[in-house]
Each structure stands twice: as structure tokens, then as C-alpha cells.
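== Sequence and structure of one protein ==
=== Format: two labelled lines per protein ===
==== Data for this protein ====
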Amino acid sequence: MKVPGLLAGRVIYPLQERSLRRPTFQYLAEIERSQWLSRSEVEALQLAKLRALLEVAHANCPWHRQRLDEAGLHPDRLDSLDHLRRLPVMTKADAAVNGDAMVWRGVPGGAFRYNTGGSSGQPLIFYFGRWRQASDAAGRLRARRWWGVEPGDPEAYLWGAPVELDKTDWVKTVRDRLINQLVLNAFAMSPARMDAYLDALEAWNPRCLYGYASSVALLGAHALERGRRLRLPKLKVVCTTGEPLYAHQRELIGRAFGAPVANEFGSRDIGFTAHETPHGQMLLMSESILLEVLDEEGRPAPAGTLGEAVMTGLCSDAQPFIRYRTGDMVRLSDEPDRDGRGLHVIAEVVGRRTDFLVRADGTIMHALAGIYVLRAVEGVAEFKLVQHDVRNVEVQVVPGSRWSPTAVQAIDAGLRRRLGDDVRVHVCVVDAIAPEASGKHRYVVSHVALSGGLSQAATTH
């Protein structure tokens, strides 16, 4: 049952956000205006927000205060974005080791513990506040509007959660339905489940379908293999996230669902970062993210040149991420937005690959189903999960300072809950995890081939 769109989008959704003390719709109104500023005006806004963030960090976060003082970087004297480069970059290891000295416990609205998806192979526990949450939600709402999708319009999510597959958070389910969001579990994609998902999508008739790129591609491949011509007359856009979207996946998804495909770029630690427009341009959430693209020497890479994305989260007041090395490789574009916005344009995002995991009963899971298990085990500094066959899994672990023998038991039990009690899990403690022969890192690798036409959804083709 759907709630009328205007009621869901203009009454229920804003009330929900206010009850959670998230200024989502306030920020949405702000960025709807600010996106039409000129590029120089957008950068002036970034500078003002950067000063405010550095003041928060200096006043409330001892680790950042020491960094700023050692760099001679005083927030009240910051008169150029370029001056931020005086500050050394911040790494995930810095955040892992010094997290307590980075957190502002007294941030208005509270600081909430979270952890990264771990797709980089290095799980991270961190804290975020209400403004970070609002920035993420408002950024997505604005991006949906670029495609003609309004708050409260029916949406479907192909998503996973760090809970056991047979558990349901009924409170969240009710809340989702009140704002017209249908959630389908990306961690349980057996053929029968995918048939049911296709039926549910047709019944729901969403304006937007959102999910992990590989999972949406898998569902599309299943529909094509079944010969189903999906009836989704109101679908405006399919939005993918969580990993690179490859050209063959984009074509497959568009063919299966009969709608254009738009990719999203972001991460748990930095948040919603960029989104694709109907012109095929990836626009940065410039009001919330300050993006630097650096070469191997740590210098700004020229537009069009591949470099590492180093980001400052301008809304990350609970635990500031300032000049944070994300590990993602991107290219900036020197062209403007074709609709006239002053937001920065990203030419290309080069991310990391993940694979599907397959249970013995044929259920297909997004790689995050395994990653969620490993990231939750205390003492795991880095990991790589290799599925040799449906009953044999190898986990390479670089132990952290809190590693203990009980972590092996936790990994074994967690993965068997996901993959089946008859799965053998071999945990190997190592000093370092080597990259692939290509030089790239893959943190979940499955040697289990998908059957038939489903192989079209794989990350390589």
C-alpha cells in the first residue's frame, strides 16, 4: 500500500527527519539554491564552511588541533582553499588509531558510532552527526530531482543490512513504507527470491530503483534470462551505488528495466559525494565535500589526469575528516555542468572491484554480505575473503592491536551464518595482503561462476 506522494514527501518525510533531529529538508532547500551559484561563488561557500569545520576541529578534537597547530593553519586566517594543502593528508590508519581524539562527543544532536563497509579491506569505526546524515539524505533527494523524482515518490531499494538474513527491523520497514520506500534484500538473491523481487517491483511501480550496481545488474540479468518484459511505466531512473558501474552493466540494466541508469559515488566515512545527471556528467556534492585529486607526489593533478581522491567532509563535525585519503582514483573535468550549475564535475571514478558470494543452495549475495561479517570483528585491521567453492572459504587477516584468538571463532561463525553451516572457513593470519597481479586490490574474490545469463552481471566481462 502506497501513501499519497504529496503526503509522504511534504508531511511524513519532513516530520520523520525533524523527529530524528536531522535538518535534512532545511539543507535540501539550501542546496537547491546554492547549486545555481557560479563556480567561484560555490568555492567561496566551501571556504566559509571549511573555516567553520576547522574551528570545530581545533576546539573539540585534540588530534586535529595538534595537526592544525603544527601546520600553522589557523581557521580565522584561512583565506584560500589552497592553504589547506599546508595540512598533511589524513589516512584511514590515522582515523583507526586516533579515533577517540578526533570525535566531538558534544556535537549538537549527538555523535553516532558507525563503521565503514570495509570494501577497501580496512574496516573503520567512526562517528557521524546529524548534519552528516542530513547532507547525505538531502544530496540524494536533490540528485533524484535532476531525474524527475520528488521526495515521497515511490522508490525501491535493492539493499543489504548488517543483520542476519532471517531478521527484519519492522519499525524501519513501517517507516520506509510511510515515505514510499520498498526495500528488497540484496543479500538473499536466489532465483525464487529474484522472481518475487520482479513481481514486487511491478506491483510497486517505483519512480526510482536504487541499489548496489552489481546486485541491480544481477536482477536485470535474471529478468532477461527469464524472458520477462518488466512493466514499470513510472520508472524514471535506476540509480546504482557502492562500486564502479561498468559499461556492460549499464547497458544490461537499461535494457532490463527500460529506464536510464545513473551512478552514484560515495562512501560511508565521507558520505554521499557525487551523482550522475541526465547529461551523463558526475556532479560533486560541492556544498558538503571539498575534493582534491592528487598525483603520486601529493600534488594537485591537472584536470583530466587520474589521481587519488583526497576529501574533506564539510559536514563531518562529529568526527572531522580533513584531507582524508579515500583510496579511490578519480579524474576531475574542467568542463562546466551543462545545465548551468556551479558544482564541480568529475570526469571518471575508478573504484575497486567486488564479487558475488554464492551459497550451496544457489542464493547469490552481494560481496558486502561477507564484508559486514568481517568489519564487525574486533581486531581485524585488513582482510581478503576468497570463496574457492560453495563450501570452502579462505579469509586472510592482518591483525590489529585488538586481535585475539576469539576473533577466528567470530569470523567462522559469522560467515557460516551467511553462507551455510556446512561451509569450511579457513582463517589465515598474515603480515600483509598482496595485491592482484594487475596491481589492483580485490577484497572479496569468488571463484564460483554464476550460471547462464546471470554471468552478465559480473564486474568483469
In short: The longest helix spans residues 39-60. The first strand starts at residue 112 and ends at 115. Residues 16 and 183 are 18 Å apart (CA to CA). The domain at 357-457 is CATH 3.30.300.30 (GMP Synthetase; Chain A, domain 3).
